[in-house]
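The data are quoted verbatim for completeness:
=====
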Amino acid sequence: MLVADAKAVARQWVEEERPSLQNFHGAYLAGSMTCLPDNASLPDASDIDIKVILDLPDVLADPRKLVYSGAILDVSYGPVKDVASPEAILGSYFTAVHFAHPSILSDPTGRLSQIQAVVASDYPKREWVRRRCQHARQTLETTLTGWDTAGSMKDAVSGWLFASVFLPPMVLVADLQNPTHRRGMANLLQVLTRYGHRELHERVLDAVGIAGMSQGDVERLFAACAEAYDAATTILQTPFMLASNIRSFARPIAIGGGQELIAEGFHREAMVWIAFIHTLCHTAFANDAPEDMRARFAPGYQHLLTALGVSTLDQLAERKQMIGQLIPDLWSVVEEIIDANPAIRDS
């Protein structure tokens, strides 16, 4: 499917859903597709991200995947305050990149289109790039503050996953890259290498726990994840956040996305995504699987945590400390990139 066709599918879904959505304010494309030209092919491991804006003070994001017209959509929701002005968007590291490109799917008032034009013009200004990098840094620091390594293993592992995902964005944002999650570590390697800081990428991988992973190690862990995934799709019933990633129709993204990274040579960088998907499977098993299935797949998940060095609360506390210690050095590189990036301008 071409990107232009994917956009047409997204617009059609929004128009069909709009009458049933109370307080509908508008919708726009999110995700990596916004940075691709219309004549490009949508990657096999990509879905179509749609953000629906509701005229409400607060909205539960509750992202969910669904199949529509042969395409996989990833739909989430947000309050109007998040897109109320160009300034609100320009300072948001995870929203601004989408408004930097034509992305509006539905705009009954015309306000989103007006804002998008301003954001596209001001997106590369140094002031806003630095502010978005600060937002990305603050998001990581808030994640570390809320990461409980003295409570349950489930919460501690979740903290590790989120901290790992939020490590690359501040550097990617400084280089005007899309801070996408699945490919975040791989894109971080490319940016740090280009600016002469490949050794910092190794320190990032070491802090997360994936630096020493061989391709064989990763392929074995990936195979176990894929097996768990296929089993989890057969028993999932209880809703939980991001559970829609565990659906048979989403396999090209959940499993295909990991395979794509490994095939490109980013086997270590793929481990964060693999661990994320396997953790979702583990949650589905805990909620809905019969005892014999839980017993069958529990050792595979435990092996994953052991291989990553995050199988105990003490190890997770050490990871938390190591990730926190990286922030000043990452920020120094952020400042360097902002000063050196020719695409960034002062006015």
Notes: The domain at 3-123 is CATH 3.30.460.10 (Beta Polymerase; domain 2). The CA atoms of residues 236 and 284 lie 6 Å apart.
